[in-house]
Predict the 3D structure of the following.
Amino acid sequence: MRWLSTKLYRTLWQMHTQEKPLIRIIGYALTVFIGMALFGYTVYRATHLSFTHDECETFKQYIYPGASFSDIIGMKVPTANNHILNTLLMSACYHTLGNAEWMLRLPNLAGHLLFMVFTALWLARFKNTLFLVLGFVIINANPYLLDFFGLARGYGLALGFMVASIYFFSRYLQQPSLGKMLWCLAVCVLAMISNIALMYYTMGLCFALNVVFIIHLSKTTKKTKPFIIGWIKLNLPIVLMLALCFLFFHDPVKRMVEHHAFYYGGSHFWEDTLGSLVNSCLYTPDKAWPYYMIVYIVVGLVAVGSGLVLNDLLTGKVSTVMYPLLLVAVPSLATVLMHSLLGMNLLIFRVAIFLLVLFLMYVLALLRYGFQFPKGPLIANALLWVFAGLFVYSFYLYANITHTQEWIYDANDRDAINAIVKDVSLHHYQDKVVKVGITWFVEPAMNYYRVTKNCYWLQGFTRDGVATGQYDYYYVSKESLKELPKIPLRLMAYYPISGYSLFAKE
């Protein structure tokens, strides 16, 4: 046993300090292979999964009516469901390619490629092959995260641009230049246009950049006036970016506030923001035991990083952990402050998913920092293996090609429409208007398929419920079964994933 532990330690140390070119090539190839496999997974899901509630709302409100460029960026329909850049790209795909699910989801598939490429580039800057491969798995092999790269929402695009921004920020830290800062800020703006929740990441980035400015100026000048002038000059690109963002978002955000569009969210950071992310990633019910364990781990890791940063500052050094810590801590604190001061809802579930990515990147930076301590490579690499193993196990348990976690009720909407079309054709009902009663959750998706499949003999779907009138077919959740009228019905299909049933009137 002692021989084995000594051999393991020497192997890990050699991988850290004496990497051979062949090892690096194998590591790069393995990273590319993992990336291709994950991309294949999201492509398959994008082509085979039913369109979901929020995707269909965007299609109904902006894409199908042919909304103009100004309608989209001006938030003609004031809803947080309009992720502006994603909606613009969806519209372009719709008018050039068509209305199939995968065509409208192409922008976020591109976002997935962007996310993986810049994740790998950021990890490669740590110059350790094992760290690159395992870190890539930790950030990318998350079924909940991967859901959003195969959907026509703004989350995948926003995450891709955010990681690109972090990569350019890391390059700026190593060798400051105006070009690197402009790239960092430009893709940050694209992230915010993709999903306005990324304004919190923008706050963290601006804060971190100003910490860089202050540290740099404190080393190069000792006088107050040159220090202030230099600080103002360095902030000019940031001020310009913020001014442009204010002009771009002012009217759309004002319209959304007036129409109470920011209703989605929580009121407690630990229970709602952190709790929703933990429960979503672990696919557990609210307040299951892993929630409390993960909360303690998160607090512990933040405390350890904060202690290391403070210790380095007291000894006159700038910790490499400081900036990843700021990028996750400042946005988190900003959400709490905005909630306390302005009454804005805290971010939850999918809207807070960028905080998950920022936290994972912070954890990886913390582990890499540990390499400098005695026995550090052994401990850090062991933890990398453990974390990567947990994410691989989670992927094994929860990855699927049938549904998304947040819109599981839409898993079988396309199947239901196809079954209705087949049954109508079999009984020659096309010459009359066919009415289908539904549970209201699936209304957007059913109307999407009615339009895209040219089933105009179907009456437009409504949210009136199933107890308000007589229908030819009923597509309802198990909770709505009790609302069905007391008439003879034929069960056409039961869908166990979504829990919905499809009935035909006898």
